[in-house]
Amino acid sequence: MLDRVLSRKRLLELVDELAHARRIVGPVKQNDHYFYEPVDRADRLDLDFSYCVYGPKAFLLPPTQTLFRFKQHAGTFETTPEHNDEPLGIIGVHPCDVNAIRLLDHAFANTHPDEHYLTRRRQTFIVGIDCPGPCTEGVFCGDMHGNEATTGFDVMCYPLSRDDTGGDVRYGVVFGTDAGREFILYAQAGDPPSVEDERAFERYQIEKQAAFPQQIPYGVDTLPDLLERSYDSLLWQATARRCYSCGSCNLSCPTCYCFNMFDEQELALGTGERKREWDGCQLRSFAEVAGGHNFREAPASRLRHRIYRKAKWVKEREGIAGCVGCARCDRACTAKISSVEIYNQLAEER
Amino acid sequence: MPLIERTSMYRGDSLYEPRPAEITAVEKLTADENLYTIRLDGGGPLGHDPGQFVQVSLVGIGECPISICSSPTRLEHFQLCIRRAGEVTEHIHRLDAGDTVGIRGPLGHGFQVHELHGKDVLIVAGGLGIAPVRSLIQYILDERSRFGAFHLLYGARSPAEMLFQTDVIRWRENKDVNFHTTVDRPDEQWRGHTGVVTTLFQELPKLDPHETMAIIVGPPVMFKFVVLEVLGRRIPQKNVYCSLERRMKCGVGKCGHCQANNVYVCLEGPVFRYGELKALREAIG
């Protein structure tokens, strides 16, 4: 069921309104690729983007982030935590990345809630743009159910049709939160959906179902069990022989959230910051302890760790899939290691 | 449904901020290990379980995870045995009494002492493994009437590497504990037992397998051989505990470094039952 119908032109006007109160980030084309970038005007956004090279994770979990500032004096120290509560609007988030953000929300809220993430997240307004079909070759979001988002956004816009006259897109809009409802209805933007709109939405969903090719013929639900039985497969070694342990898969992944912590002293000694920065489980020293023992010394054990996290462990721990099927890892890999290929090769061993 | 469960949200300032604490005493234990006695600023107990750990900070340098090696029954301070092994611990070794460190914790899941109450206890420690388990040894000695028989086996590589020598002397004379030590490589002064820690099992009386809780803390290679001895004496797997070491950064189940298969050692551990570890292929190596 749709909540509203809206033209793209009107949506962009609303985004310009939103920009008075929030920093706006969205897909921008640079040298034939799209990236999430801050923009000052909505017409700089390209909402027809295929996919962004990286997801919008960096705006919620920055590559480096200050956790607290410290000041040493009189033999002791004081700390001041740092939280960024600048209001943010991320415009044009595809369902895969909405689902990836849902996982981050859960991972940073559970057990020991992490205010550094959650403060930013609470101040973030998300406008989703649905995908009628795969954005590029090789994605397996249809298999991973990453191509459907039912929560995690403030509004989701389904591109129902292009207007014949001006080439404008007509969006069917679903509200995900009260803030999303206010965003549209306070401005009295768009129209209530007509019977034809609802029919168009049904057609859209049927056509969408057919548009995503199945990449994992054995089915994604079999993966946890398949992996459980594949711990000792030689495939890990055979594949990891090609791995450079460069961590590009981690870097490009919208659901990777592992981090390292380090201190930065300022020139005026005694003051500085403790920060965190993205880390990657494929890097050689990720599980190395002081004294030199490395719990995952072999590249094969690190590859297996990543694949298990993505297709089994994160889901078991957090209840939300650790992989959304965007295939950014596969595209980023300099050695052309593909997670879909690994899943299918393991299934064929059986 | 709200995007984030707000009710469960920690409203404190930061999970990662350390509290200042004063080093009140430093004791040199071996060439590479010192024992630090620490008092939180403002006093008050740390509030830990035996087997838990803290993150020790030197602001400007960094942070490292260290097991608490004193019992929560000793309220006025707590102790950390710190081996010089990396950048942060190297700097800690330059500190003296009166200096300040940062403390975050207690963290992790320690020994649930109520599960041990009323039971016989066998503790087997190897090398630096004596440090985390010392918190439990002190607890048992301080609350002695709550426990049955208490056996303690401790193996070190050499006499010079034997930790807590003051304690070792006291424990040898203490009738409340059946205590035996061994070293792999004796020196000329060593008059005690020589050999790996499993050779001390011959010193044990017959154990009551259903009344004995076994705690094994040491390097992975020792762990396997001690488990064999313990299971061979028919102690059920659920009554066997151990403590794991891993790289840790956040200490609160976020950063991913300490993950062993699908377990976060900083959250679900470092203390585990053997029954839980069996399924974790990466846990014991």
Can you offer a commentary on this structure?
The complex is a heterodimer of chains A (350) and B (285). By secondary structure, chain A is an alpha/beta fold. Chain A folds into 2 domains: 1-63 and 83-212, no CATH class; 216-350, no CATH class. Chain A contains 12 helices and 11 strands. Chain A has helices at 8-18, 95-109, 115-122, 141-144, 178-185, 195-211, 223-228, 235-240, 248-252, 299-318, 328-332, 339-349; strands at residues 4-7, 23-30, 33-39, 64-73, 76-81, 88-93, 124-129, 155-162, 169-175, 259-265, 271-278. Chain A has a 7-stranded mixed sheet with strand order 1-9-8-7-6-2-3. In chain A, strand 7, helix 4 and strand 8 form a beta-alpha-beta unit. Chain B has helices at 87-92, 113-116, 130-142, 165-173, 220-232, 265-268, 274-277, 281-284; strands at residues 19-28, 33-40, 53-58, 62-67, 78-83, 100-107, 120-126, 150-156, 178-183, 193-194, 212-217, 240-243, 259-260, 263-264, 271-273. Residues 1-11 of chain B have low confidence and may be disordered. Chain B folds into 2 domains: 19-107, Elongation Factor Tu (Ef-tu), domain 3 (Beta Barrel); 113-243, Nucleotide-binding domain of ferredoxin-NADP reductase (FNR) module (Rossmann fold, 3-Layer(aba) Sandwich), CATH 3.40.50.80. Chain B contains 8 helices and 15 strands. In chain B, a hairpin with a 4-residue loop joins strand 1 (19-28) and strand 2 (33-40). The interface between A and B is large, with 58 and 50 residues.
